[in-house]
Amino acid sequence: MENQQEKNGLFNWFRQSIVAKLGMVALLSLLLLIPSSWVNDLIYERQGRQEEVMKEIAQSWAGIQYVAGPVLVIPYKTVRRERDAQGLTALWPQRYRLHHHQIRFL
User: Fold this and answer.
1) Contacts of residue 92, Cβ cutoff 8 Å, sequence gap at least 6
2) Fewer CB within 10 A of the end CB, N or C, for the chain?
3) pTM greater than the 0.85 cutoff
4) Between 59 and 101, where is the model more confident?
5) Distance between CA atoms of residues 51 and 62, nearest Å
């Protein structure tokens, strides 16, 4: 009988104690963090796999691709004049091609 009263007294203390209730809430919160971390690990693993698969597909199909619009190529000629030490003028024809807003020698 006395043993039963001790159990009831402990149970009543546990039911009325704020510290015991807070301790139980903290314990349950910590226990629920375990599956949450499992889910986060699974998410990170699948994100990493997604990146790997995207790289594999990109490598199997083609390398780097460039998208460009139409290109206007206009060939033209110029003449370069040079004077030597004696004062004589020499004419040098040069061919250029205007390409992507740059001048390149042919």
Assistant:
1) 79, 80, 81, 82
2) N
3) no
4) 59
5) 17
